[in-house]
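Q: Please design a sequence for this.
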């Protein structure tokens, strides 16, 4: 559960905050990279959870003090699987090892993310991919960037020519959600050019923001795996909604981020 924040006083500009947040996620990513390379063996769910927690703690030991110094009065969301709206004020929403299971299996798809949320709106985010050295950033109203270069979503206007993606929302998902995911993949297999399915969500969303893929959708989900990408895609010129085309909020039961030219068609496909 999130810890209750005190009243926040903005001590520096959001642009400065973003620069410092990017430095923090890079530092945490370096620590996780030192732990990466061999498959972590575990024989039970308890051993898996301990291994996941070990990575989280390694990154949080760096992120928490640095981000707290930046915004000492901001709240801190402890559970990266939490969803729904936050209380009023400023909050750090952090995923210290996004794609943690991939890290444990020596797969390259993992990242470190930190997002500052103000009155339930993401205002800045930094996503660092330690194995490539890439850092994606977005500042509300100021665009999205990859290592300082502006990002733009795809100009594609034909879903039949599009690469689309989805991911598993969380372990032990409700059966109804699992079946909805399956039917949506089937629908997209008919309508899109290529369908990619993998975790974590954030990396698909960086690809949408960069124009490499054209749409990403997910049912259910948590704040930490959707807020960074939602801001990146929006600031790169994309459209973010729920799967029915309605405005997306952290309380929504579905999520869709797409290039404007394929958004309506993707909604129609997911609504079948």
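A: Design:
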């Amino acid at each position: 559960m999130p810890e209750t924040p005190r009243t926040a006083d903005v001590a520096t500009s959001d642009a400065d905050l973003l620069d410092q947040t990017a430095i923090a996620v890079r530092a945490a990513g370096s620590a996780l990279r030192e732990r990466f390379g061999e498959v972590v063996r575990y024989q039970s769910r308890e051993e898996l959870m301990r291994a996941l927690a070990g990575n989280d703690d390694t990154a949080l030991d760096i992120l928490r003090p640095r981000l707290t110094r930046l915004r000492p009065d901001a709240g801190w969301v402890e559970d990266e699987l939490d969803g729904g709206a936050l209380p009023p004020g400023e909050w750090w929403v952090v995923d210290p090892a996004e794609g943690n299971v991939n890290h444990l299996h020596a797969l390259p798809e993992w990242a470190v993310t930190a997002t500052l949320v103000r009155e339930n709106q993401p205002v800045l985010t930094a996503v660092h991919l330690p194995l490539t050295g890439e850092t994606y950033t977005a500042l509300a109203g100021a665009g999205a960037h990859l290592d300082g270069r502006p990002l733009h979503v795809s100009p594609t206007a034909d879903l039949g020519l599009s690469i689309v993606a989805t991911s598993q929302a969380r372990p032990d998902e409700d059966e109804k959600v699992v079946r909805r995911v399956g039917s949506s993949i089937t629908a997209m297999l008919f309508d899109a050019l290529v369908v990619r399915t993998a975790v974590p969500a954030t990396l698909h969303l960086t690809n949408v923001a960069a124009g490499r893929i054209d749409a990403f959708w997910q049912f259910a989900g948590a704040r930490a795996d959707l807020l960074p990408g939602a801001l990146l895609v929006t600031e790169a010129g994309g459209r973010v909604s729920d799967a029915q085309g309605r405005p997306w909020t952290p309380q929504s039961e579905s999520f869709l981020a797409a290039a404007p030219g394929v958004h309506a068609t993707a909604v129609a496909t997911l609504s079948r």
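Q: Thanks. Anything notable?
A: The chain has seven helices and twelve strands. The helical segments are 14-34, 45-70, 100-104, 175-191, 201-209, 223-235, 260-270.
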